[in-house]
Amino acid sequence: MASVGPSAASSQPALPSGPAVFKTIPYAFILPEILCGTWVWILVAATSVSLPLLQGWVMYVSLTSCLISLLLLLSYLLGFHRNSENWKVLDSLYHGATAILYMSAAVLQANATINSEFGANAPLNYQLNTAASFFAFLTTFLYILHAFSIYYQ
């Protein structure tokens, strides 16, 4: 008969703290999420925003997600989670919700890219919007990957 003791209860993997965050999946996705989201914001800001309602949402989602992800990364680096299981739930819910918001922003950015093809200063704005669309979809993918990696961990 196998005994159930403290070793059986601690079979859950510990949440990383410090530099181990950058070596542990899915937490290693946080830095690329921040960097790609920053590129989305920079590229949209570099265009002449012809559709402020669409691209305003893209900038809002990218900037807000970038800041919240940065705070989450800092909390992991500093060990604020204290290895609580609630942090996994919070992390998964945040990344799942952000993936949905980023998908809406990526689709709106793709629409803005299509509309900027024949506008004023078309070649430069079209190229910047295309790059912003690429990074928006890439960031969406990273957030989805992060959310599901935590869920299946």
From TrEMBL:
Compartments, record wording: Membrane
UniProt KW keywords: Membrane, Transmembrane, Transmembrane helix
Primary location class: membrane
Transmembrane segments: 27-51, 57-80, 92-112, 132-152
Domain spans labelled MARVEL: 21-153
Any one GO MF annotation of this record: structural constituent of myelin sheath
GO CC list: membrane
Single Gene Ontology BP annotation: myelination
Membrane topology: Multi-pass membrane protein
PANTHER family associated with the record: MAL-LIKE PROTEIN (PTHR22776:SF24), MARVEL-CONTAINING POTENTIAL LIPID RAFT-ASSOCIATED PROTEIN (PTHR22776)
Protein name: MALL protein
Source organism of this protein record: Picathartes gymnocephalus (White-necked rockfowl)
